[in-house]
Design brief:
Radius of gyration: 16 Å
CATH architecture: Orthogonal Bundle
Number of strands: 0
Strand content: under 5%
Length: 92
């Protein structure tokens, strides 16, 4: 049982660190001076969400969270490419 308690503490600390990082990225998203700063902040927040989904999947032992994380990662990538294309066309 001691390994379970240590793993719970690890997941709690990991989640708090990811939450702090997401909050800092959200602040960058709001006050970012350029659109590129905002795009990077959105991408980082999406990646942190993906990591949290994988941690939840491991913690609960449920494989469908991995599927959801995979789909979320693909959506995050597609959104990043779409915003990049929009920025590229807007600059011309």
């Amino acid at each position: 049982m001691m390994g379970g308690i240590k793993m719970n503490i690890f997941f709690l600390i990991s989640a708090m660190i990811l939450l702090l990082n997401a909050v800092l990225c959200f602040i960058r998203l709001i006050i970012g001076p350029s659109i590129l700063d905002r795009m990077v902040a959105i991408n980082i927040i999406g990646t942190k969400t993906l990591i949290v989904l994988v941690l939840i999947a491991y913690y609960h032992g449920q494989r469908y969270y991995i599927d959801i994380a995979f789909i979320y990662g693909l959506l995050n990538f597609i959104i990043t490419v779409a915003i990049s294309k929009f920025i590229q066309l807007e600059g011309k």
